[in-house]
Amino acid sequence: MRFFILAGLVGAALFITVLPASAAAWQGYVSREAGFSFTAPGAVKTEKATYRSASANQRGATVFRSLEDNIEYKVTVVDFTGRTNDEAALIKEAATQYSTGKKVLVDVEARVDQNYGRKMASDLANNGGRSMAGFYFKDGRLIQLEVTVLPANGDYGTPDTSRFVDSVAFLASRVEPGSTELTLAK
């Protein structure tokens, strides 16, 4: 009997020491310049990009990207300065671009910290994986979070997809302590 109790305590202690290690892999990131924060695993790299909009032509964009365990985490920030009256249309356009060529599984309206948006999930064409995305508009910028579970990972039900997309926050009070500051590409 003592052996089983001791084995149970050792197992519980092992579980507790392993749990924080996996949770520590996620890091907080904040772009005060764009007014949002999120969490993602691994190191996030920043790159300059061009966003193509049917209604607003080409726009400058910044992409924050991380790849961990064959899952790609990506946040795209698009500058739509001067187009703030079009935010609902720009969100709809981004959601339409996201869903093109994919089998949409979920498409719902979303609200985070009083900011309107949309959340979607889809299967990629040709068994290319599964993706989840969130689209929001804040201070003249379209903010698109997208996570893609690649076939090499294959765990399409992983909670990491919603953990990433749902981590977005627009209030400064919700920035995680110790978050890494990200700047927009110029």
Strand % is 35-45%
Strand order of the largest sheet: 3-4-5-9-8-7-6
Q: Percent of residues in helical segments?
A: 10-25%
What is the C-alpha radius of gyration, as a whole number of Å? Answer: 19 Å
**CATH topology-level name:** Protein Transport Mog1p, Chain A
Characterize the largest beta sheet: strand count, sense, and whether it forms a barrel.
7 strands, antiparallel
| SSE sequence, one letter per element | HEEEEEHEEEEHE
**Unreliable sequence segments:** 1-24
Distance between the termini: 66 Å
Would you state the CATH class? Answer: Alpha Beta
Shape: globular
The CATH architecture name reads 3-Layer(aba) Sandwich
- The number of distinct helices, counting runs of at least 4 residues, comes to 3
Q: Could you tell me the mean pLDDT? A: 86
CATH superfamily label: Mog1/PsbP, alpha/beta/alpha sandwich
Number of strands: 10
Question: How many domains make up the 3D coordinates?
Answer: 1
**Structure classification:** alpha+beta
Walkthrough of the structure:
The protein has helices spanning 2-23, 87-99, 160-165, and strands at residues 26-31, 36-41, 45-53, 57-68, 71-79, 103-112, 115-123, 130-138, 141-149, 180-181. It has 186 residues and is α+β, with helices and mostly antiparallel strands. It has a single domain, classed as Mog1/PsbP, alpha/beta/alpha sandwich (Protein Transport Mog1p, Chain A, 3-Layer(aba) Sandwich). A hairpin with a 2-residue loop joins strand 8 (130-138) and strand 9 (141-149). The longest helix is centred in the N-terminal third of the chain and has 22 residues, at 2-23. The protein is globular and about 40 Å long.
